Amino acid sequence: MPKARNVLLIVADQWRGDSLGILGHPSALTPNLNSLARRGVTFRNHFCQGAPCGPARASLLTGLYMMNHRVVANGVPLDSRHPTLVREVKRAGIDPALIGYTTTIPDPRVVGPNDPAFVEGGDPMAGWRLIAHFDEVEHRNYFAWVASKGFTVPDDPMTLWHPAEGACGPTAAPSRIPAALSDTAWSATHAVEFIRSTRPNRPWLLHLGFYRPHPPFAAPAPWHEAVHEAAIPPALRGPLEEAAAQHPLLKHFYATQKRSSYFEGADGIVAPLSDREIVLTRRAYYGMIAEVDHQLGTVLEALRRSGQMDDTLIVFTSDHAEQLGDHHLLGKLGWFDQSYNVPLIVFDPDRAADASRGRIVDALTESIDIMPTILEWLGLPLPRARDGVSLRPWLAGDTPGNWRDAAHFEFDLRGGWPRAEPPPFGLDLDRASLCVTRTADWKYVHFADLPPILYDRRRDAGEFRNVAADPAYTSLLAEAAQHMLSWRMAHAERTLTHLSTTPAGLMDRVAGARWTG
């Protein structure tokens, strides 16, 4: 009997694409991921397609741009007609298991308007076999696990992410939760148990989710001091007043971003954070990254000991990234690379990938490429309705011709879970959005009802000067807008557009044969 082909899909939350030791980041203590990268391929310029979690994860698990799956904000349902990774592998007889979450709201036309998922922040996507669910809002399952270990959970369990000492906010202190009981340890513990209990020759796909380095920005001891402050680079930001003058939406963000979204129990807004406070924030962030890497080492060692390493495709990525003080922002929002450039490391155990081991790819890749890569590696058909392209040629050591010359991502300004607030500036709900085309040379941000943004990345790689209104850039502005329009036309909904009736019956014009279903 041939051996099963398995997939370990590791999805962190809010991990910046530059934050890997293999890419030379001075604060990223990632020895286990570095080792995985030396045996696989690292994609340096990998971008997610939306933010926050709901839109980003919908693209990751459907292979569709946000303009097609239309999960535009947290809390927006996913149309049940879209193919998903879990549905495709399950149809093929592969066990799809989930540790963590997928932030998916079901289609209300299928489940009805009273489904319990509609009072939660996001359920697992339909089809996953739940091993351990990290419910995002109240974290009930996680805190129950902590209590089962004999630790006293306070009436307000969220205070476990307060500093062990001192005021809430950016701090050098660890969080109150012990590292052995952190949510990172929770994910790794369940993953090791899953790997040890797998049955021989029964193929599986494990979606292993880690909540970190998502806020609250508080690392448990000893990870809170794993990174020396001297190794932490300063934030990429100029004077706040000049930044706010770039665009009215930036000024809006600066006035409304609350510290409590990033530091449990903190007061005030984000924009005035001092250089010292940003360093402390980054130290906690990179401490959580070091902790995730450490726990990943235990998962990968369990996979090796189980004898399944040589039969398992391993994919490490994140849903979206994190501003981390750059441009005076925290979180994931807007149009800057810091929110959308995410890590991607792929380990292909096949001998055909030997030529690419340790390779670092600089080409632009996108989260929508992960689903077709996994399906193709498993030998499964790719859905017609998909926007992503398989990365397997890169894994084989090739350099594909006619590869994309731009990355694309979107952000919606309507409020999502838990507060469905109206968009700013009185914008209409269906026109409160932005779309980004980002090339090596320029970035164009199109708004339905706000002024555009254009950066000349050749002269302004940090994206500090919006030149959209500069007459010297009129030609580039037109070129960028045309590029975006052509992209949207090429990726318009096409589930059935390859089919055509003929006197011989329904024909598949892509396959050049009669369509059989």
Walk me through what this model shows.
This protein has helices at 31-39, 53-62, 66-69, 85-91, 108-111, 140-148, 183-197, 240-244, 248-256, 275-305, 337-340, 370-377, 392-395, 474-490, and strands spanning 6-12, 41-47, 50-51, 95-100, 129-133, 204-209, 312-318, 344-347, 359-366, 407-412, 433-438, 442-447, 453-456, 499-502, 505-508, 513-514. With 517 residues, the chain is α/β, with parallel strands linked by helices. The chain has two domains: 6-397, 3-Layer(aba) Sandwich (Alkaline Phosphatase, subunit A), CATH 3.40.720.10; 433-517, Arylsulfatase, C-terminal domain (2-Layer Sandwich), CATH 3.30.1120.10. β12 and β13 (453-456) form a beta hairpin. The model has no long low-confidence stretch (mean pLDDT 96).
Secondary-structure map with pairings?
Elements: E1 6-12, H1 31-39, E2 41-47, E3 50-51, H2 53-62, H3 66-69, H4 85-91, E4 95-100, H5 108-111, E5 129-133, H6 140-148, H7 183-197, E6 204-209, H8 240-244, H9 248-256, H10 275-305, E7 312-318, H11 337-340, E8 344-347, E9 359-366, H12 370-377, H13 392-395, E10 407-412, E11 433-438, E12 442-447, E13 453-456, H14 474-490, E14 499-502, E15 505-508, E16 513-514
Parallel strand pairs: 1-6, 1-7, 2-9, 3-10, 4-5, 4-6
Antiparallel strand pairs: 2-8, 7-8, 10-11, 11-12, 12-13, 14-15, 15-16
Helix pairs in contact: 7-10
Poorly predicted spans: none
Order of helices and strands: EHEEHHHEHEHHEHHHEHEEHHEEEEHEEE
Helices and strands: which structural class?
Answer: alpha/beta
**What kind of oligomer do you see?**
single chain
C-alpha Rg, in Å?
23 Å
CATH class categorisation of the largest domain: Alpha Beta
Average pLDDT works out at: 96
CATH homology-level superfamily of the largest domain: Alkaline Phosphatase, subunit A
Total of domains: 2
Task: Write out the strand line-up for the largest beta sheet, numbering strands in chain order.
Answer: 5-4-6-1-7-8-2-9
H/I helix tally: 14
Q: How many strands appear in the DSSP assignment?
A: 16
Question: Outline, from the CA principal axes?
Answer: globular
CATH topology of the largest domain: Alkaline Phosphatase, subunit A
Please give the largest β-sheet.
Answer: 8 strands, mixed
Helicity, as a percent range: 25-40%
